[in-house]
Amino acid sequence: MSAPSIAGRVVDSGSLDDEPKRTSDVDSSDSILENSEGVTQHDLSTLRHVRDKIPWQAFTVAVVEFAERWTYYGTTVKIYFYISAKISTTITSAPPLPPGSVDGSVARADRAIGVAGALGMGQEKSFAIRTFNTFFVYVTPFLGAIIADTKWGRYKTIVVFTVVIFLGHIILVASATPASLQHPETSLGLLVLAIFVMAVGAGSIKANVAPLIADQYTGKMRKETLPTGEVIIVSPTLTVESIYLYFYMAINLGSTGAISASFLARDNGFWVAYLVPTCVFATVPIVLFGCRKYYVVTPPRGSILLETFRVIGLCLTARWSWNPIATWRNIRSEGFWDPAKPRPGKSPKGLLGMMNLLVKSIERWKRAKCFLFFPIYWLCYSQIDGNLGTVAAGMKLNGTPNDLIKNLDPISIVIMVPIFERLIYPFLRKMRINFSPIKRITAGFVVAGLGTTSPPHARVLMGEPDAAPLNVWIVAGPYILVAISEIFASITSLEYAYTKAPKRMKSVVAAFSALQTALASALNFALTAVNVEQRFEWLFASFAITAIVFAGIFYWT
């Protein structure tokens, strides 16, 4: 049965731990576990654990990320070829559009080998702009986290920034109209502006949607008797695990919006391909407004980031010296934190309590070190997001848009999430195999490394009629393997970020987790010179080896 809903009320959301605490310090199997309803340590060790019913409000929150991912992948998947693809034309004064096209679409007779394109500015410029987009989307979550923690709370922050994303989509559609494409530089300028606006919006909701969806579950650990007579443990930990599995499934279901984008751009032009995701995203404010009275929301409690900088700044000011050596000695001396301690009439009120909170949070932050390994993981993922699409473009398409193959990743996730949640993970628990978050993430690194192993390679010759004698579906294997790795690593990172974070740090830790994707984009940007088709074999093999090596280092750490 479901835990009582606290719809429409402001509540405190705690954090979950791997092992519940006893209400007594006595090491007894009869001790009642803290935050449970009569569950003892003996019950915990001997009874089967199952998840609770997922609140319906959580599924409506998932709609937000579903629509955002639809619009993100339904647009960015075409930006790569929108910017780079160039099909030869004898009319030098015209924009680099496919023959006879005014919107980037491909004539029906050319669709078997043709690739939709518009600006013809080359692969490197396209790669740079898309990498910047990914970087910026995963840096701005800190903006959303700070605003939610200090001013609006998670729900209102999501609502406001969905409007920002919608405005960005309007600019994007305008950049791809036939009139804009007659002036490629103007079109590119509008495109970059749209990317900036949408990245601010998408990043800012990203730090808040993941915590908000888990906030909707407020149940406690308890025992229940099934109709068969079996006594089970209803586990909040497993419930949150399932919430994030289905949340990620919704994300990837939205990602399949890129399928429609591929065909729409090829057949109807880029402005139509961008208009459809805009209409899809227009449903988000309707859902959020309609369910506003039913959400479990948490109040803003102040930003621990800003408070940390405030404390450190106050203490550094007192220890500052124009002599760098003296400054370093002052920082390392005893009493560094004394200036922040409240003294009547001198120190800001409440800083001591804030310092105590920061000290208590240190142990929690230490757990966040696991996220520092994720840039390597996302580097591997970035290869299926762009370079494998380029490889596919050089193979025989047989009427298949070259970037359509990329959707095997989200499709595989949508299919496999219920299998893992209903069959594989319960089977492992039944066999008493502790597939802990750290083990799952390690497995994700290994599988990602295997998936990045160089696929059959074909040189891409834009505008040339001869394709490599290989079927485009050969590259399906890497996409499916990376999808499995995401179930292990990416989903677990969302769960880990929520369950290990203190109440005041859930949005911040979610932003810190997202930052690792931005760092991966920065590293990828540094590799722009080698992100060229002639070096793909070396690039894929290097990332594969690095991912597997880092899996071992991660688990050992």
Write up what this structure looks like.
Belongs to the major facilitator superfamily. Proton-dependent oligopeptide transporter (POT/PTR) (TC 2.A.17) family. The protein has helices spanning 41-46, 56-84, 123-137, 141-175, 178-181, 184-215, 236-255, 257-268, 270-281, 283-290, 304-319, 324-332, 351-367, 374-393, 408-430, 437-451, 476-488, 490-499, 506-526, 536-556, and strands spanning 36-37, 48-51, 221-225, 231-235, 395-396, 468-471. 61% of the residues lie in helices and 4% in strands. The strands form two sheets. It has a four-stranded mixed beta sheet. The relative contact order is 0.14. The two termini are 39 Å apart. It has 557 residues and is mainly α. Residues 1-5, 22-26, 87-94 and 458-465 have low confidence and may be disordered. The protein has one domain (56-302, 367-556): Growth Hormone, Chain: A. The chain contains 20 helices and six strands. The chain is globular and about 80 Å long.
